Amino acid sequence: MRIDLHTHSTASDGTDTPAELVANAAAAGLDVVALTDHDTVGGHAEAAAALPEGLTLVTGAELSCRIDGVSMHMLAYLFDPAEPELARERELVRDDRVPRARAMVRSLQELGVPITWEQVARIAGDGSVGRPHLATALVELGVVDSVSDAFTPSWLGNGGRAYADKHELDPFEAVRLVKAAGGVTVFAHPLAVKRGEVVPEAVIGGLAEAGLDGIEVDHMDHDGPTRARLRGLAADLGLLPTGSSDYHGTRKTVRLGAYTTDPEIYGEITRRATGAFPVPGAGGTRPV
């Protein structure tokens, strides 16, 4: 089985619609794909309706969190999307995205970048606006060569010159809320140092004690030694090690299925979840 547990669609900051994403996942030879848009479940229904036969959809979201001034992302899988506490927190984060993006546009303008809100809004479309949309604008303007190049202290990286805070969950509260909604939590790209400051390993240990289920080990922003370090940390803390592409369509160069999760780990995630269940595809045929 080929299992990719971290992807994004146009419901947040990817370039594939949810329907296109599941079609592309099948074409990439995946057996399981998780749709984990930022702080929203808005793409799940479309993805499920378009799901090809032979591909299983894991519903999820990537929750924006912050602890001690450091931003981090929490992947939440198979939770009940109607659970009111978690739904309310997702709404608070989404509501803060537009003011935050406008503030970053102003900061970029003050740095001499000819970016406009209209440009960013066009790029975001109906999605939940975020830094990747601003990064795409910087690429369009020739300020940086790639979206990844915009996520540095010089521009949009955590604490960078044009960075602005938004409402974010405390990660311990995120773990509690997701578990209360019957879901499973995995700390996304925990040591992606090129994105900015990362949380200390002691915090990961505390989260494990609080019920964190896993950490994302195999990821494009982790080099070989970092993956080995995280795999050892997962073993020490009893956490599930996952692998994922963090696919954003054409917004990033990484391909669907570039990094995958072991089937046994996926099986344990599904066993722990009680809020929702993986959706088996029956809407079409897998591309040849």
Describe the model:
- The structure is a single chain.
- The protein is α/β, with parallel strands linked by helices and 288 residues long.
- Helices cover 38% and strands 15% of the residues.
- It contains 10 helices and 8 strands.
- Strands 1, 2, 3, 4, 5, 6, 7 and 8 form an 8-stranded mixed beta sheet that branches.
- The longest helix has 27 residues.
- The two termini are 17 Å apart.
SSE string, helix = H, strand = E? Answer: EHEHEEHHHHHEHEHEHE
Mean pLDDT: 94
Main sheet? 8 strands, mixed
Helical coverage, percent range: 25-40%
Overall SS class: alpha/beta
The geometry reads as globular
- Our estimate of the beta-strand percent is 15-25%
Low-confidence stretches: 284-288
Number of helical regions: 10
- Total beta strand runs: 8
Please report the distance between the alpha carbons of the first and last residues: 17 Å
SSE topology sketch:
Elements: E1 3-7, H1 18-27, E2 32-35, H2 44-49, E3 56-67, E4 70-77, H3 84-110, H4 117-124, H5 131-140, H6 147-150, H7 171-180, E5 184-187, H8 201-210, E6 214-218, H9 224-237, E7 240-243, H10 263-272, E8 279-280
Helix pairs in contact: 4-5
Keywords:
8 strands; alpha/beta; 288 residues
Describe the structure concisely.
This protein is α/β, with parallel strands linked by helices and 288 residues long.
